[in-house]
Amino acid sequence: MIILAADTSNSTCCAGVYRDGDELAFELSLEKRTHSETFMPLVERVVEKSGITYGYIDAIDVTVGPGSFTGIRIGLSAVKGMAYAVPCPLIPVSSTKALAGSSEVAEGDPSETLFVPSFDARNNRVFASVVKASDLTAVVEEGAFDAEDLAERIKELKRRRKVIVLGNGADTIRDAAQGRFEAEYAPGAVILPRGIYNASRGTDPVGAEACSA
């Protein structure tokens, strides 16, 4: 099965092509230009490097937020057009789950580690979830949280488990966590195509008309 995985939900954008789990090609853009300028040329390059053509794509994994409303609209509009043209179904993917799926536990037992993928929502708030690093199962469902409230929930869950806070909301959570719990922080972590693909496994495809921002 050939999957195109794509993300425009935050400041970066990316795409990758996978055949039965094997990565054929991918690209991550850190450019400051808008996704409307960078995304489709990036997808064209990735598909070309993969050696396949659009007609062989079986499904498109696409992040649907939380994140930048404008970025999500750009990405969804683009992939919906591709999905109608190929044609193929879309697989909607949570951006926090995709961020968690883009990360690995370098040391320790993944089954005893919690990922907290997070995006800054300003005013001491974050879009976040808490998932098991071993299988991305949600421990705290994705939502918009006051950082203080989320820190209290993480404190209750931590026990002896390692906590790794990911994404550009990490510094906000770090400030709220002071005196509550210890954690590792990776504010530079971003969504990668492999993470989108990992997060989409087990999710049912939908028609392009069912995905909207």
Describe this protein's structure.
With 213 residues, the protein is an alpha/beta fold. Helices cover 32% and strands 31% of the residues. The protein is built from six helices and ten strands, in the order βββαβαβαβββαβαβα. The strands form two sheets. It has a five-stranded mixed β-sheet with strand order 3-2-1-4-5, with helices on both faces. The chain has a five-stranded mixed β-sheet with strand order 8-7-6-9-10. Strand 7 and strand 8 form a beta hairpin. The radius of gyration is 17 Å and the shape is globular. It starts with a strand and ends in a 13-residue tail after the last helix.
Low-confidence stretches: none
Largest sheet data:
5 strands, mixed
Determine the N-to-C terminus distance: 27 Å
Number of helices: 6
Radius of gyration based on Cα positions: 17 Å
Amount of helix: 25-40%
Overall, the morphology is: globular
**Class by SSE composition:** alpha/beta
Give average pLDDT, whole number: 94
Walk across the major sheet and give the strand order.
3-2-1-4-5
> H/E element string?
EEEHEHEHEEEHEHEH
The amount of beta strand, in percent, is 25-35%
What is the number of strand segments? Answer: 10
